[in-house]
Write a structure and sequence with these properties.
By secondary structure, the protein is mainly α. 76% of the residues lie in helices and 0% in strands. It has 8 helices and no strands.
Length: 205
């Protein structure tokens, strides 16, 4: 399990997923414009949200890799910062970035919903999830032990386990194999991080 417990490997996996997200968003926008036959404005708008989310994850990946994570988007949304070396900090920052990505994605889905009503509900749900995640981030980083910290630890443990399972499932698709591998690496790293005695202590477990 040493491979999966390696921070550099987790950082690289995050970097790959961030780049894939950015590339896919750009490809979607270009395709919608170049195709021209039936431009789906909603898809372009949602892709912008995906692009922004990709840059947020990119900054986070750089920090996990021991670098300063910063770009114009992450700077504006407050997720830039220096290198992350502590597992607890990595997990906390992951929750924060996840929250911001959800909120941003939700906002653009709602905007896209004006062109495709089916997106409105997804946008609202994403924003709600993002706000809840942001609230939980603030609770686990306030330096106070509480029942909420323990609940968050359990929730994260389940979510990272699901990430691992999702990665395994992705291995059965030829195109999604690289994504599946990255998901597994990230999921196992975070899962093992939560089981670390120091991390558990900070969550009050």
């Amino acid at each position: 399990m040493a491979f999966f417990d390696n921070q550099d490997h987790a950082g690289l996996a995050l970097l790959i997923l961030a780049i894939v997200s950015i590339v896919m968003a750009i490809v979607t926008m270009i395709w919608e414009v170049v195709d021209g036959s039936d431009i789906q404005v909603a898809n372009i708008i949602v892709a912008v949200g995906t692009l922004i989310g990709g840059f947020l994850y990119l900054a986070f990946a750089q920090r996990v890799r021991g670098q300063t994570g910063s770009n114009i988007i992450s700077d504006k949304l407050g997720v830039s910062g220096g290198a992350l070396n502590d597992k607890f900090d990595i997990i906390c920052e992951f929750v924060k970035v996840f929250a911001m990505v959800r909120i941003v994605g939700g906002v653009f889905e709602i905007i896209g919903g004006f062109f495709n009503n089916a997106l409105l509900a997804n946008g609202v749900i994403d924003i709600i999830i993002g706000v809840i995640a942001l609230f939980l981030y603030k609770k686990i980083t306030d330096g106070k032990d509480s029942v909420v910290d323990k609940i968050v630890w359990i929730i994260l443990l389940i979510l990272f386990l699901l990430t691992i399972i999702g990665g395994v499932i992705a291995l059965f698709g030829i195109i999604t194999i690289p994504i599946g591998i990255c998901m597994m690496i990230i999921g196992v790293f975070m899962f093992m991080g939560l089981l670390d005695s120091d991390v558990k202590a900070k969550f009050g477990m």
